[in-house]
Specification:
The structure is a homotrimer.
Chain A (H helix, E strand, L loop, with lengths): L6 E2 H8 L2 E3 L5 E2 L1 E2 L9 E4 L6 H6 L4 E4 L1 H4 L6 E3 L3 H12 L8 E2 L4 E2 L4 E2 L4 E2 L4 E2 L4 E2 L4 E2 L4 E4 L2 E2 L4 E2 L4 E4 L1 E3 L4 E2 L4 E4 L4 E4 L2 E4 L6 E3 L4 E2 L4 E3 L6 E3 L4 E2 L4 E2 L4 E2 L4 E2 L4 E2 L4 E2 L4 E2 L4 E2 L4 E2 L3 E3 L4 E2 L7 E4 L5 E2 H11 L2 H15 L1
Parallel strand pairs in A: 4-5, 5-6, 6-7, 8-11, 9-12, 10-13, 11-14, 12-15, 13-16, 14-17, 15-18, 17-20, 18-21, 19-24, 20-25, 21-26, 24-27, 25-28, 26-29, 27-30, 28-31, 29-32, 30-33, 31-34, 32-35, 33-36, 34-37, 35-38, 37-39
Antiparallel strand pairs in A: 1-3, 2-7, 22-23
Chain lengths: ~350, ~350, ~350
Amino acid sequence: MDASHPLTTAELAQRLGLELRGDPAVRLRGVGSLEGAGPDELAFLSSPQYRARLAATRAGAVLLREEDAAGHVGTVILARDPYAAYARAAALFHPRAVARPGIHPAAVVHPEAEIDPAAEIGPLACIGARSRVAAGAIVGAGCVIGEDCEVGRDCELVARVTLVTRVRLGARVRIHPGAVLGADGFGLAMDGGRWLNVPQLGGVRIGDDCEIGANTTIDRGAIDDTVLEEDVRLDNLIQIAHNVHVGAHTAMAGCVGVAGSARIGRYCMIAGAAGVAGHLEICDHVTVTAMSMVSQSIREPGEYSSGISVMRSRDWRRNAARLRQLDGFARRVIALEREQE
Amino acid sequence: MDASHPLTTAELAQRLGLELRGDPAVRLRGVGSLEGAGPDELAFLSSPQYRARLAATRAGAVLLREEDAAGHVGTVILARDPYAAYARAAALFHPRAVARPGIHPAAVVHPEAEIDPAAEIGPLACIGARSRVAAGAIVGAGCVIGEDCEVGRDCELVARVTLVTRVRLGARVRIHPGAVLGADGFGLAMDGGRWLNVPQLGGVRIGDDCEIGANTTIDRGAIDDTVLEEDVRLDNLIQIAHNVHVGAHTAMAGCVGVAGSARIGRYCMIAGAAGVAGHLEICDHVTVTAMSMVSQSIREPGEYSSGISVMRSRDWRRNAARLRQLDGFARRVIALEREQE
Amino acid sequence: MDASHPLTTAELAQRLGLELRGDPAVRLRGVGSLEGAGPDELAFLSSPQYRARLAATRAGAVLLREEDAAGHVGTVILARDPYAAYARAAALFHPRAVARPGIHPAAVVHPEAEIDPAAEIGPLACIGARSRVAAGAIVGAGCVIGEDCEVGRDCELVARVTLVTRVRLGARVRIHPGAVLGADGFGLAMDGGRWLNVPQLGGVRIGDDCEIGANTTIDRGAIDDTVLEEDVRLDNLIQIAHNVHVGAHTAMAGCVGVAGSARIGRYCMIAGAAGVAGHLEICDHVTVTAMSMVSQSIREPGEYSSGISVMRSRDWRRNAARLRQLDGFARRVIALEREQE
């Protein structure tokens, strides 16, 4: 993967603050996998299970743990966490997009919007009244920002992002295409056989360094705000309902749904397609595995599950049929035990 | 939450048709929660479990049930359903957006489209041939309306909504950003080892007063239309496949999926991330709880479930392993019973 | 359903290469269902269970199996697979959209983009540097194509599709509104208590004849590409994570999620809302039923399941409570067996 910022192995090790072993003058132009990297690319070995690939690699240098370096003759950079070191190295070769200041002539900016001269507003973007975009921020092609929103310093709205109303982004927030922040929360009251809308008067607050995936939705609050603290990472197609509060450094994988007013702690990991019911609390440092359902508060850190893995359908159907009679069978076991006493 | 329409407590009670107790001259400017509302705001108490908050509230007036008003010294408005009354009150303070008639110069309207002079077409919206937009309707920024669509009176397409083709909206339909109505149904036929597309020739019909959430998708029908009757409420990230029929006043929470040709009754409630298989019927007044799967018709009103709540992963894994052997264990129970006879 | 290409029954049978029985001169203008079709429309009977509708149909001709034609007096066209024949017939009456060459004046095309003169670029579309659009391709209204993308011959991006960067589409690929291809994969490394982004340097490669549904997301790879081979069919609201590889002719229904680096074979069918974990393999010809979770590799063709169908909530709750104790009950059954020996 060619990059615009070539570095020698010595420069790279120094920039990463890590120890180099081998040739300090290898010129690296980018990163690659152990199998695919060429002599001007950096690779990494994060798990001993891939050590066989190390012998065969053509990479100019490899990031690895000291214990995995033994016996390898090529140039290496030693790291306690090679994957994190790789992430930092790759970011040196491929830095984040930098704003090209200015408003594209095909953008539509409301006269009451405030755009910092050091912000970039892309083609066919639209920015509403009383919204502000700070210095260094990028509002990509086709984004729609409604009224009373704030885009913080160095944010990147990649393209076609929508901030509906009263959405405030901290600094360095990245949002991927199709994401919708600040749509009406789903607040309904039944009244005489018809639904009444409950006006959604809150907003959305997103902390510094959050990332929000493609086509993810985060509704605005009913009265108070929906909140993501700093460094929250959301993958694609996630639904965050109104008045949810997500603690700092929590990450959620694709297709997760979080219902209204749930409060999720810091450093949680919610795996793909898991669901979190409304009006409950999950404490810090909780992991929920894929396709699991959290319907009561979790008050102790740890890993929680309720997903079921597939088996042959004909076998599964027999088990699923028994599951529908499970309480009866449990009672029969209890009865058998009584008779045996 | 400041609003543009201040009202006195007496005016408000009169507009709601409810009984006021206390000071008729409190000037209210908006609504808030029991904890957060100030002296010029209205709060509500919908459940006795929050009565402790009532004593401490600074709200100018509180909507509540008569039985919860006993002993409270502040100004109250009595309602049998305080949440519904709150919804109506909040809508008085914060009325829905009203169309600002006209076509934004940065919109692209096909010469064969018909836009009522009392409709609002926002910036960077695009409207195709033979589509019509009625009086009072708002087509927000970045919306794309294809050919042969109809947007009824006082509809609101908030922003970046897509109506692909042959989509007809009744009156007062609200659609949130990223929603896609009228995309091709997923109709395929295998032919000589390759997929053939089955042309999707139907449309989508949406009844009056429906609401459709952000990034929700509703496909058009194969031959006949996909139909939502009046007052159907869909949250975000819902998939409605081709030829589905949803009865009036039914509500679905986020991440629900409904497969092709399913027929769902009136006044149903489908909770988050539940799934409904194709070619089946669900009768009126059915509730399906979160993450449940409906794979056969439901012919009696009531509440149905199949979701499983999380437990500690190490405990869950043991149970899930037994679940894979459940039929065997059931047979062993039966054998034990036989031996005991 | 009226079409622009009327055909006689004789012409139609000849175009389809099928045998006609009855009147060769019926003028057909389109297709319909057995119940809804009129005398100038073609219907089809694909299953004997609908034979009762055959007697009552007003359709000008019916596609059916020879064994279902017995006793029917109307004009019929015989097909071994009437549904596939219907798909081909409907495509004759309603051919796919054809590009109207040219770039709409309200589109924004980067000077370094290459647009074939025989391609159609719709209003408010935006195409970035070094991206190419081939002859016959349609880039619909509001699409955003970033940098270094390729749109192959006769592709159709219906409207508001986003190709972020390094996305290459083969020929005849159709993408529905709201789909996002080539967004950053969800690659994170924890470093000193904060998340680090792992730059996503790969792209997305989509084979010929693929179809991608509304609001579906396909992330670009971390180092190598995310790949769909030819004729893959994805429904709406599907998440395909980075470095997933999907084999030719595989189809996935709505709301499926596939985690990173999963490798799915050819001719697989993944039903609605199923989930596939990362870093595993599914061989060719595997069917996964709705709402099932694949968390280990599948090495033999066949049908796999883990979804559970609803029952009355009160009954389900009793069973679900027992499920949480299942390992204990299984041990009690084993103990009972031991005592009986």
